[in-house]
């Protein structure tokens, strides 16, 4: 595999991980907000 192909693979893997991380964080924040609303 060429260095450029490996680079491209790494880039897309990082993008996928980043998107998943952001999605999880957003989900956690929504859950927290929902629980705070329940307490208020």
Walkthrough of the structure:
The protein has one domain (1-33). 92% of the residues lie in helices and 0% in strands. The chain has one helix at 3-39. The longest helix has 37 residues, at 3-39. The radius of gyration is 17 Å and the shape is rod-shaped. It starts with a helix and ends with a helix. The model has no long low-confidence stretch (mean pLDDT 96).
What's the arrangement of secondary structure elements?
Elements: H1 3-39
Total helical elements: 1
The SSE string, one letter per element, is H
Bulk shape: rod-shaped
Question: What proportion of the residues form beta strands (DSSP E)?
Answer: under 5%
Uncertain ranges: none
Distance between the termini: 57 Å
Biggest beta sheet summary: none
Topology, number of strands: 0
| Tally of domains | 1
What's this entry about, in short?
With 40 residues, this protein is an all-alpha fold. The chain has one helix and no strands.
Salient structural properties:
single chain; 40 residues; mainly alpha; 1 helix
